[in-house]
Every structure is written in C-alpha cells, then in structure tokens.
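REQUEST FORM: STRUCTURE PREDICTION
Request ID: SP-0412
Submitted by: Lab K.M.
Chain count: 1
Length (residues): 171
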Amino acid sequence: MTKEEARILAKNHRDNIDSGLQIIKSKTIVQKIKNNKHYQNARLIGVYYPFGSEVDIKGLTHQYAKFAYPRIKNGKMDFILVTDKTKWQKSHFGIMEPRKGKIVNSEIDLLLISSLARNKDNYRLGYGKGFYDSFIKMYHPKHTIGIVFDNYTLDFIENLWDIPLDEYISN
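STATUS: Completed
RESULT:
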C-alpha cells in the first residue's frame, strides 16, 4: 500500500484508542524508554511535544541528560535545548515548540520520534512532511527510536528519501 493509504489507516487506529487506554499505554512506553540502554547512556535527547493522540512522553525524566524539542522555522526543523526558562508557542501545525534557545542539532545522542506506524524494514510512517528524515540525513543522531502505540506495523512502500529508524518502542 502507499504511504498515503497507510497514513489514513494508522491515524484511524491511533485516534480510536480509548483515551484511558492511551494513558496506560503511554506510561508503559515511557517506562520502556527509561529502561532502554541508549536512553540511559544519552546526555542530549531529542524528544517531541505530544500532539493529539500521539504517545504522551511528557513524563520522561533523566538524571543526567538534557532535552531538546523540535522547532520548525523556514521549512527546516531544528532541535532547541530546553531549560526551565524556555518559553513555548504553538506552531502553525498546532504543535507546541520552544520559541527560542540554543540549537543543538549536531549534539543529539538519542532522537525519540513519534510514529503513526512502521513497516517491517523499520521505516517510519509520520505525517508526510519529511522533517525527521531530512534532520536525520543532515545531522546523524547517534541513535533513533520510533515511538508507536501497539507496535502498529503496516505493509507500506517507503519513499527513496526515507530513512529507517534504529529501533521502535511500543506498549
């Protein structure tokens, strides 16, 4: 199937997970992330601000690592180091982003990426804008993990410019 067809199925699957069950599944995923050796060894982690029915990873904490969140500006995604002084704004996509701060694109040890689904070859199904693929191609984070409910896997055909992720974490 095409990525467009898969995206419709995957959004429908994720949006139809009961909200109470989403909370439980998100907590399970957060715990699995915390137990992951790449997470435990990372010092700078690229994360996402959950939007809509995405896996909620806001409960992530790390004793030694710092977190960076994506910001889209002029058609490019940068990761901004977040501190307790960070001011947030809603992007034109409706996603919360850090307004300003230090760009740390080339310093990311671990990149956690929200995913609608995956295929058997570890290619991620996202929203179709290509921001993450472009970022990974340009900055080569040390390790990439897709975050997906129910290890949702579909048989979609990836595009030539897509980049497979190193692994996935699910409930």
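NOTES: Residues 19-35 form the longest helix (17 residues).
Reviewed by: T.R.
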